[in-house]
Write a structure and sequence with these properties.
With 210 residues, the first copy, chain A, is mainly alpha-helical. Chain A is built from twelve helices and no strands. Chain A has two domains: 45 residues, Arc Repressor Mutant, subunit A, CATH 1.10.10.60; 144 residues, Tetracycline Repressor, domain 2. The first copy, chain A, is 77% helix and 0% strand. The longest helix of chain A has 24 residues. The N terminus of chain A is likely disordered. The structure holds a DNA duplex (30 and 30 nucleotides).
Chain lengths: 210, 210
DNA sequence: AAATATTTTAATCAAATGATTAAATTTTTC
DNA sequence: GAAAAATTTAATCATTTGATTAAAATATTT
């Protein structure tokens, strides 16, 4: 009732509690499979309160989604735009920070990619993702390395696909991989930790091979 | 009404038409976001008929899902169990056949991986996926190559993650990649076709690098 | 502490959706 | 070609689910 005039005065902890619960449930089940009642229960509040704070499931989802993508892009953009690091160091940083991030929140990659597929325009138009990556120091350095013959594969998009794919795919496919390889949670995590060291080595070898 | 006694006599084309429509809609939207009415409309039949043939949305889904996973595993298992091909040739075949398959049905990977995540037990227990891959000729050859020092990375699971990830990830992330790289559908497809040649080269370089 | 503003909830609504039923239509059998 | 079986449909039910409302509870102000 007092929302529109005084949004800034509302207890932030309740609003944050709902958002936190929404993040958890949305990330785990995706938009379509999520019930607003699940979020309310997870947050320990009544269903009506959720709509009081966020008007609708769709609006709450959009807020969570934009924050989630933002975290992802930010982590990438920061590493890729450091003037002080070399190309190889950038790869190492991206690999390490993403593997640590995703190990803490394993649902993140498949959540993001599924929901982006369902609604690419809504979610990607709003973020300056293209500029943040294609205009980065990283891509300038990549281009220089190609010019100097240090890298034989000239497409930066191929580079990006390989880097992100090698990082994220195992997490996306983890239920299947655990089954195939008969891996416990800890076995799987050990493999992911090993990949922090391996992926930079692999990437370097790949980019000189084609 | 006459279903249970004479299932084998039902017109296969109608049943198949419904399954075909279900495949299309489920693959595109996933289980939770799919409405049985969407499937009926796609198939050009009435909603009740869908339940007459398949009893429920869940049962229809399970049939589609098992077939879909089966296609995937089969394609992999066939290539990996050929006694006549070398390790490198197997990689080439897997890469080529999967890229062609997925280019025809781009929703396949993310559909499979999302739904497996939602219900790993139901879907993976029923298929002898572990045995089909871990007991394959491919893995014997991989082990031999490691023993002979031709491959320095000893874990076949890391090998598998890299191979499948390099193939499937770009399709999973395609909406985002198209946006980042400013790629039209045809640009993207061209990159995927290039990867038929590139991935085997990359894989070889990687496996000798670590 | 009374008055006012803010926060929270229980109860309810309306639309969407999975499923059923009984009757109509078409096909097959004899 | 009449009877029986199989197929298809329109209409309807029951549950789920997103959203609203009006009132109760709590906090804040004066």
């Amino acid at each position: 009732m007092a929302k529109s005039k005084t949004a800034e005065k509302l207890d932030a902890s309740t609003e944050e509690k709902i958002k936190e619960a929404a993040r958890t449930v949305f990330h785990k089940k995706g938009f379509a499979a999520t019930r607003t009642r699940d979020i309310a229960e997870e947050a320990g509040i009544n269903l009506a309160l959720l709509n009081y704070y966020f008007r609708s499931k769709a609006r709450l989802f959009e807020i969570i989604m934009l924050e989630t993508i933002s975290v992802f892009v930010q982590a990438m953009a920061l590493a890729l735009n450091d003037e002080k690091t070399t190309l190889g160091e950038k790869v190492e940083r991206v690999v390490t920070s993403y593997i640590d991030l995703i190990e803490k929140e394993p649902d993140l990659p498949i959540f993001m990619l599924s929901e982006i597929r369902n609604n690419p325009d809504l979610l990607l138009v709003k973020l300056p993702i293209k500029q943040a990556i294609m205009g980065s120091v990283f891509f300038r350095q990549h281009h220089e390395a190609v010019t100097q013959g240090k890298i034989t594969e000239p497409s930066p998009i191929q580079f990006l696909m390989n880097l992100i794919g090698l990082i994220m795919f195992p997490f996306i496919a983890s239920p299947m991989l655990k089954r195939i390889g008969d891996l416990k949670e800890e076995d799987f995590n050990r493999l992911m930790q090993e990949r922090k060291r391996l992926i930079p080595v692999w990437i370097e070898a790949m980019m000189k091979a084609s």
